[in-house]
What does this fold into?
Amino acid sequence: MGVKGEQTRARLIAGTRELIEAQGYSGTGLNRIVAATGAPRGSLYFHFPGGKDQLVAAALTQAGQEVEALLAALAAGGADTAALAERLIEAFAERLELSGYTSGCPIATVALEVAGTNESLRTVCAELYAGWQRVLAVRLEGEGFGPAKAEAAAGQALALLEGAALLASVHRSREPLDHARHAVRHLLGG
Amino acid sequence: MGVKGEQTRARLIAGTRELIEAQGYSGTGLNRIVAATGAPRGSLYFHFPGGKDQLVAAALTQAGQEVEALLAALAAGGADTAALAERLIEAFAERLELSGYTSGCPIATVALEVAGTNESLRTVCAELYAGWQRVLAVRLEGEGFGPAKAEAAAGQALALLEGAALLASVHRSREPLDHARHAVRHLLGG
It folds into this structure.
């Protein structure tokens, strides 16, 4: 693929990320994606022969991997897992605030929309969440948690983050995330 | 309004609740509501002159008030707030399991979809969540928490519930809710 092709592909994914985050999966039609990105409809099907679902899967995967990379970067500082989870929650709070309370968890809206209706996209979301949880669980094991306890505690931390991000979006306030930050230290010990 | 009118109105709300829970706000068109409920389109506008958004608001409100009533019923047993929150999480887990993992939190999907795009429905969702949180906070105050601490702890419990319900839907597993049940006791003390 040439440079121009790569650029078009990247533009399609970036535009789709923005649209699905603001309006969800069902609210984002291909016409909107074409209009927002300026990409010709033909190039959309060239890069994503599977159409909307393939494009949405690519957008979710990119957004999810960015969160995982953020976790890895935050972890590089050598903080304990509780501090790592606190920083991730803080990063979500800052992102939400900076966006005027429109950008919460980049995959949650679509995840809930597709959970009961679109098995392939549900699987994409499930794997992304599992990836984030795994990063936390592996570190908790390194801090002496047994495998089952580490997985459970990592899941609790992720649930807190996701629920607080949901409430923060709905209330247009970072307060639920601030409270979650305190709770996560309590839960992960430290 | 006659009995028949009341029945039609109730059928419209019940049908809308089911559709928005399964497919979200954007995925639920008025045509689908009319087809699913068998209500004539004219009666839809007779009962809900504001159209789809008024109908969705009524559906969300009914679902949210049912959760609040469930909380009140669970509280009548005289349990402490931690036990109350555990039972609410258990009720969500049972509901999810019984539905074949399609019925999570009855307002979360729409809440995320509309948070940045539909101010009047966002407000409906925000008030429902605030109502649930208030029930928990008032009880925590009764157990000796100061007002600010009670509000924060109630918010943490609600975030755990909502995030765990999201993860449970996405993973098609009640495990995140089971882990949240243990965490909520830890958070609310007891």
About this structure: The two ends of chain A are 50 Å apart (CA to CA). The domain at 52-188 of chain A is CATH 1.10.357.10 (Tetracycline Repressor; domain 2).
